[in-house]
Amino acid sequence: xxxxxxxIVWFTAWVSAxxxxxxxxxxxxxxxxxxxxxxxxxSGVETIISLPLVMPPVATGLILLKLLGxxxxxxxxxxxxxxxxxxxxxxxxxxxxxxxxxPLLVRSVRVAFEEVNxxxxxxxRTLGASDLRVFWAITVPLAAxxxxxxxxxxxxxxxxxxxxxxxVAGNIPVRPRHCRSRxxxxxxxxxxxxxxxxxxxxxCSRSPRSGPASISRAGNGRRYEVAxxxxxxxxxxxHARSGCGNSKPGDGxxxxxxxxKNVAA
Length: 265
Known about the structure:
4 strands; four-stranded antiparallel sheet
């Protein structure tokens, strides 16, 4: 693994952890509010929070691009007042990761808070504890497992995010890039020489098995042997090896073998 790949992996890891820590206070507040309070429009808020889970990541990235661009509502305000740009900068990476992983954190935290027995909190208040002390001394420790599970889910979702990140932060080689954005262009252009991508194909192409591939179908007593064409060019970055036995170049025939007799399909 090259130094550039190590830098990209490190950038992806710490930005994913940063986005998880940033959304943690908001996730705790939203989960507690959804678990303990009822108000008009609660279902609408739940729907808005869950939208990144059901919408395509690219569509979410387009919405963020409209909002955070220089001509957008939030992006224009940040650019005019703070001279801060988010779109197509490294700041777009944690922003998009936070938006995409926020629903998973909220759902886990909400379920954890709903499982806490309210009688324990009421007993603590009768003993003179304030609401803030009850929250940190009673509620959070009892819901710690759910909170930690939500953080792990959010971190894992941030590591695997691609669609919204490439729309908001872009894929510019001279700037820090997300791990999956790093391998987007090589895979899209058919160049899989990167070790992270090419090792499964290299392992399969160097398999000791030779001859046509056989596929058996249970129940009908048939077995199909497929002889792959030998005149196809090998992809770049893959040491392809054809071992098609005695088949002729360009002969992509399929033979059905039944009861020891070859029948041309």
